[in-house]
Structure formats: C-alpha cells, structure tokens
Amino acid sequence: MLTIDERVALLRSNPFLREAPPDFVGAIAGAAVERAYRRGDFIFAKSDPADDCYVLVEGRVGHPEVQAAEEQYSVSRETAVGGQLFGFAAFVQGMPRRVISARCELPTRVLAIEGNRFQALAREAGRAGHELLQNLTRTFAAHERGVAARSGWLSLRNVGKVYDPLGRSVVAVDDCSIEIRPGEFCAIVGPSGCGKSTLLNAIAGFDSLTTGGIALDGEWINRPGARPLPGPDRIVVFQNGALFPWATIRENLVRGPVVQKRMSEDASLAKAREMLARVGLADIEDLYPAAISSGMCRRVEIIRALVNDPKVILLDEPFRGLDALTKTVTHNALLELFDLSAKTVLFITHDLEEAIFLADRVLVMTTRPGRIKQTIAVDLPRPRTMDLLTAPEFLRLKEEAIEAVHEEAVKAFAAGERELA
Ligand code: ADP
C-alpha cells in the first residue's frame, strides 16, 4: 500500500497534474483506491461505461484495439508507464463508452479514482481544475479518435482530370495518388489553379474523373465512365457557407439527420447542442444565420457536417476571408470538434500556417497539371495550442512548406505569362 505522500508524489509525476493545486492533488490521492491485477486481466473493457480513471503505479497496460488499429492503419501503439493516467473516456462528452480497453501486460497495480468524484474535485479546484479537465478531455479524445475511426479510408489512385477534352483540353490533375487514413486530418496546399478543388469535387462525387479512381473504405466512389456517386458519407464545407438563411441555427443543424431519417430530432439536437457548447456557441440556436458573424457561421457549418455523421469531411478553403482573430477562434473550434469526432478530414487551403497547425499531414501540389509534389508529415502533438505557432519545429515545417509552394507559384506565374503571350 502506498502512503498518502507516495500517492501524491506519483500523481505529481504525471505531466497533467504537475501544476495542479496541492489541495486538489491531495484530495485525489485520498479518494483513490489501490487495485492489483494479474497479467492478462482487463482493467476495463471496451464495452464498459466510461466511469473511473486510473493512474498506473507499476506494471504495464496495453490497449488491444490500438494494437489492432496499428496493424490495420498504422496508428501508433501506446503503453502506459508509471504515473500515467489512462481510461479517461469518462471525460469525453458524447463518448459514454470507451472505444478502447486496457489489458495488463504484466502484473499491474493502479490507483483508481471514480470519474464523477474526480470531476467534482477538479471543479472545486477552480480554474486550474477546469483547465486540467479540458486538457484531459482533448488529449484522450484525440488518442481514442485514431482507434475509433475505423472507417473513412480515402484512396485516390492515379487520378487524372481533363476538362473539356474535345475542346481546349485543360489537364487539371494528372496521375495523383493519395492515401488518407481513417481519422487522419490531411491538408492540401498549392498555387491557385493547381487542381485542389478539382480533387475535392471528384472526392465529393460532384464531378467525374478522366483516369484513375477514388475509393472510400475499399469501394469505388468515382471511376471514369461511371457516374460519380455523391453521398451522405462525404460532406463538403464550403468557403461561402451554405446555411439555410430562412431557418434558425437549430433547424439548420437537425434538418439533415431528421429528413434522412437517420436520427430522431431529439438525438440530433442533443448532439448538436453538445458540440455548440464545446465551441462557445451554447446560446445561439434560436437565431437565424444572418444574425451571427461569419466566423460563427463557419463553426455552425462544421457542426452541421458532424451532426450528419459522415465518414469524411471535405473543407474547401472554409476560413478564407475571415480576419486573423476570428480565424484563430475557428481553428481552435475545428480542432476541438475534430478531436471529439473520429472523422477523416481533407482540408484545402492557401494558408500554410493554417495547414500545418491543423493537419497530421500536408500535401503540397505542383502547379497545373496538379500532382503531389511533396508530403510534409506534421508530427506535432495534439491537442494543438496557440503556443505551437512559435515553436521551432512548427517554424521549420512552415519554412519547408513555403519553399515548396513558392517554387510552384513561380512556375505557375511563368506558365501564366506564357499562356497570355
Ligand atoms: P484550385 O482549386 O487549385 O485553385 P481548380 O481545381 O479550381 O484549382 O482548377 C484547376 C484547373 O482546372 C484550373 O486551370 C482551372 O481553370 C481549370 N478548371 C477548373 N474547372 C474547370 C471547368 N469546369 N472547365 C474547364 N476548366 C476548369
């Protein structure tokens, strides 16, 4: 049995609790119970309601679903180390059950804290406690997201698109191959006219392909010669917005799932309200789109897409034209919703900083005909916060992207001059 001082020291060894108020850490140490497990025992199973959270004392805990996902989609495997908190799905709103289980790989001891008790203590701790809960929620949601997203694998194979093949013949995209993992946030950047929207429209099923093919979870959704298949599994959020001006925010949000009979009005409203609250829009549901700012509209549109529960969300320069401050708020909202939602995201933008801040991977396209010129893996931890924007690794990635895009922009400019000559 650990003494209270040893418990406090263990809790303090966890990065989340290092800065927490002493009373709070002491209270958790007092409220926790010690439990021992044998090798192979489950501490909690995937189907368990999300309640307790745990701090590892000694041993090792593995997550079978993460390991399976790793094999399937190369999601990184995480194993708990001493002092690590795990099993926090309790704090991820909208996630009433865990998406992963925890199994002991060695004889293991943990401190278990009842989830509601933990939350109550954190609330009593005031601002620091509130921030801790927020950080935990975002971190755990992000972690579980990769495992939860078992669908939304987007595969572009040697895609080519020629507009007006019998006339002027514009080769917009040529031999473009991209694999996007379920739950991945992928950004595409490139000079104007390089074929970004062409790709997005082909994925959405709005336009046909000339060569190659696009598959979603292994099923062709766009092949030359066949009619492209748009579907509710892919939702596009456009730059100019598409909220119905004659309907309130609430009606805008619940209409899709209700009309398509995929969810009751109550269920979709509950889901929408939870997401609105998450991004600071709890009290706007009775307003009409004209009464809210364009930044708020963007947030509502993203929520509307998520309420419809697609496999993939396609965003075509959604934040273009927003001022810098609004853009920042909207980025944070998108990341918060992304961390919660386990969706695949394809994001098109001109803004390199935005691409790197948001995405797991940035693809730089060549000037027309568009191909993938360079892939930039953004291995920056989530949750992402504003201080990342000045971190050396962030700046290095930004420089890499600027160089690649600039080279293409110069080529595009030269080609434009030739075309005009
Ligand atoms: P981006 O989104 O990167 O700015 P687009 O995908 O919109 O680029 O366009 C790629 C190229 O295809 C551009 O040269 C554009 O003029 C051309 N294009 C796009 N749509 C059409 C169309 N419907 N008919 C003919 N050419 C088109």
Indicate the structural class.
Answer: alpha+beta
CATH architecture of the largest domain: 3-Layer(aba) Sandwich
How is the biggest beta sheet arranged?
6 strands, mixed
> What is the overall number of helices?
12
CATH superfamily of the largest domain: P-loop containing nucleotide triphosphate hydrolases
In helices, the fraction of residues equals 25-40%
Quickly name the level 1 CATH class of the largest domain. Answer: Alpha Beta
- The amount of beta strand, in percent, is 15-25%
Bound molecules: adenosine-5'-diphosphate
Distance between the termini: 83 Å
Mean pLDDT: 85
Description:
The structure is a single chain. This protein has helices at residues 4-12, 22-31, 64-73, 115-124, 127-148, 196-204, 249-259, 265-278, 294-307, 324-341, 352-358, 392-420; strands spanning 33-37, 42-44, 53-58, 61-62, 85-86, 102-104, 108-113, 154-163, 170-180, 185-189, 211-216, 219-222, 234-237, 312-316, 344-348, 361-365, 372-377. A hairpin with a 6-residue loop joins strand 8 (154-163) and strand 9 (170-180). The relative contact order is 0.11. The protein has two domains: 4-135, Jelly Rolls, CATH 2.60.120; 152-233 and 310-414, Rossmann fold (3-Layer(aba) Sandwich). It starts with a helix and ends with a helix. It has 421 residues and is of the alpha+beta class. Helix 1 (4-12) crosses helix 2 (22-31), helix 9 runs parallel beside helix 10 and helix 11 packs across helix 12 (392-420). It has twelve helices and 17 strands. The strands form four sheets. The chain has a six-stranded mixed beta sheet, with helices on both faces. Strands 1-7-3-5 form a four-stranded antiparallel beta sheet. A four-stranded antiparallel beta sheet has the order 9-8-11-12, covered by helices on one side. The site of adenosine-5'-diphosphate has 13 residues, from strand 9 and helix 6.
